[in-house]
Design brief:
Elements: H1 3-6, H2 10-17, H3 21-28, H4 36-49, H5 55-62, E1 67-72, H6 76-79, H7 83-98, E2 102-107, H8 111-122, E3 128-132, H9 140-147, E4 151-154, E5 171-174, H10 176-189, E6 195-198, H11 205-217, E7 226-227, H12 233-246, E8 252-255, H13 258-270, E9 280-285, H14 288-291, E10 299-302, H15 305-322, E11 336-338, E12 341-343
Parallel strand pairs: 1-2, 1-3, 3-4, 4-5, 5-11, 6-7, 6-8, 8-9, 9-10
Antiparallel strand pairs: 10-12
Helix pairs in contact: 2-3, 2-4, 3-4, 7-15, 8-9, 10-11, 12-13
């Protein structure tokens, strides 16, 4: 007997439960109108027989696919090298798994990928989308909006004019600006006066917000003490070299993330600068695999990355349960901004 032939059928479930096939189908596929005693009998029969519902049939009844697309607007090389994405995906996966929903990962590296992702979402394969690491010129929000897919964004969206006003902007983020202010105030409190900032990629709102937080404290700061990075270790190294060339007297650095800070630490060590004696260094994210293993261990602004992923998934699932229209949502759904905390270690 083949595996397919031995698989229990819906007819077998109905016979075991003593109900019609139509009743068994309504229970298995999430339909309404079945009395609770019959529901319990069908569920017991499903468990006893090990019946697995046909997803296509279930979708016809529920109009749900129990699948969510997670769209990361970055190339594979970045996604799989940066632990930030692993933490956020872990949070998303845990929440989706708890609600018996599948995660479909979609990455974008170029315009062809944007078209492919937009086409896939418009094809009705998933119930909704979670999108993060957007860049300001990214066409994904418009494509997703055109596909009519309920969406929650990771990070504050950066559009504020034109056609993108029609794109819903439910999002989960951390207090990037406030966290940056706390980091720089800590450096000022240490008596540092020549405080530099290594930015993230400035086509992303998180980097802009952290730069703004730095400037909130360093109101009259020297522009030469700001160097552009890109959230990567290599970008941190490059920016740190630029800073030392322009201002060799720098005595503190606030980096836009831990990866950038790790690159800055390497350059400072190469140049014989002691951390924190000569130059104090603070990062952002507090990703433990990095912050605890740098030399010295890195003071960092902590954001709960995994919790952000969970909240993104939770917001989307709530939208799906209530429906996707404005009225069914009870008005404009709330975005979430999580607080940050400065975690002090040996680098500052």
């Amino acid at each position: 007997m083949t595996e397919t032939a031995s698989r229990p059928t819906l007819e077998a479930v109905a016979a075991r439960a003593g109900v019609s096939r139509a009743t068994a189908s309504r229970v298995v596929n999430g339909g309404d109108g079945v009395r609770e005693p019959l529901v319990e009998r069908v569920r017991r029969a499903v468990e006893e027989l090990g019946y697995v519902p046909n997803q296509a049939a279930r979708s016809l009844v529920t109009r749900r696919h129990d699948a969510v697309a997670v769209v990361i607007a970055e190339p594979e090389t970045r996604v799989f090298a940066d632990p930030f994405f692993a933490l956020q995906l872990r949070g998303i996966s845990k929440e989706l798994t708890a609600h018996d929903s599948q995660l479909v990962l979609l990455l974008t590296e170029g315009r062809d990928d944007h078209v492919r992702v937009g086409r896939y979402l418009a094809g009705g394969h998933v119930d909704g989308a979670l999108v993060f690491s957007l860049h300001l010129d990214d066409p994904l929000p418009g494509l997703i909006h055109g596909a009519g897919v309920p969406t929650v964004f990771g990070g504050r969206p950066g559009w504020g004019h034109g056609a993108r006003n029609s794109v819903p902007s439910v999002y989960v983020d951390c207090d990037n600006r406030g966290g940056a202010r706390e980091a720089v105030r800590h450096l000022v409190g240490l008596g540092r006066t020549r405080i530099a900032h290594i930015t993230g990629a400035l086509d992303q709102t998180s980097a802009v917000d952290r730069l703004d937080g730095f400037r909130d404290v360093m109101v009259d700061g020297d522009p030469a003490l700001v160097a552009e990075g890109d959230f990567t270790p290599a970008g941190g190294e490059r920016a740190m070299r630029e800073l030392l060339e322009r201002r060799p007297d720098v005595d503190a650095v606030f980096a836009a993330n831990d990866l950038s800070a790790s690159g800055a630490l390497r350059v400072l060590r190469e140049r014989g600068r002691r951390v924190p004696d000569d130059v104090a260094v603070i990062g952002f994210d507090d990703m433990l695999p990095i912050a605890e293993q740098t030399d010295p261990p890195l003071t960092s602004v902590r954001q709960d990355i995994e919790e952000m992923g969970r909240l993104m998934a939770r917001l989307l699932l709530r939208r799906l349960d209530r429906g996707t229209g404005e009225e069914s949502l009870g008005g404009d759904p709330s975005s979430v901004v999580l607080p940050t905390t400065l975690v002090r270690r040996a680098s500052a």
